[in-house]
Amino acid sequence: MERITAPDGATIVLHSTGSGPGIVVVHGGGVTIGVYRRLADRLADRFTVHRYNRRGRADAAPRAEPYTVDQDVHDLAAVLTHTGAGNVIGHSSGGFIALRAAQRLPVRRLALYDAAVSIDGGFPVGWLDAARAAAAAGDLARAMALTGAGINTHSPTARLPLGVQIALSRAFLRTPIGRTMGALLRTTLDETHQIRLHDGPADQWSGVTAETLLAYGAAGPPYYAGLNAALAGALPRARVLPVPRSGHDGLNRAPRRLVEPLTEFLAAPVSGAAAGQG
Length: 278
Known about the structure:
The chain is α/β, with parallel strands linked by helices and 278 residues long. The chain has helices at 37-43, 69-83, 93-102, 128-136, 140-151, 162-172, 176-183, 185-197, 223-234, 250-253, 256-267, and strands at 2-5, 11-18, 22-26, 48-52, 87-91, 109-113, 211-217, 238-243.
């Protein structure tokens, strides 16, 4: 474990494992780096895997307010500079942060899983204002229910009456992972608001020249397939990888059907403009 300094003077606690070329993992919302331990372990025989908790979580510094995605991009820049890593893995809202960072930082290889990027309204946010209002009022069960149904549009639970969803969310919030997600819910909703603010055409991302793997769980929310197809059409060095039998949590579950192509992608030589990015 190392402690490094962010541009604003805050401390970033870096957890590293393995040996070989460096990879930085940018985790999703509502969780900490703990859920990515299996991923790190399965990559550690080929790579040095660097994980860090984003602001407001576990051993991370408090988040500066008002929050903007630039805060996360600046922290990622500090981690990349300290480690010398050129490979980044981003999950969910962490994928959005990693993609924003790749527009300006020397990222050579970028692997995204269910990246929460909104292209021409393709990421669902119609539920967001109601969920933020519920969270602000202290009704975490209602906010969690609205968030779960809004994001997991494929889930049978999303079609249940709202009162039933709230009751299920109340029970979920008593579990260990539920307590973590509940404590981080306002943070997650703020990040989703940033995703909404950056909605636009796919070509806004065309300046990302890193070699990019756009992976998504084929058993997860269906809108990720369309979002990744649009991104692949705009990014000059991108390809799409559907991961069969995997949902939104596929990256932290790290099945071999994902880890093997991910390892192959991250270990391959970098060519073209991406090779000159650091």
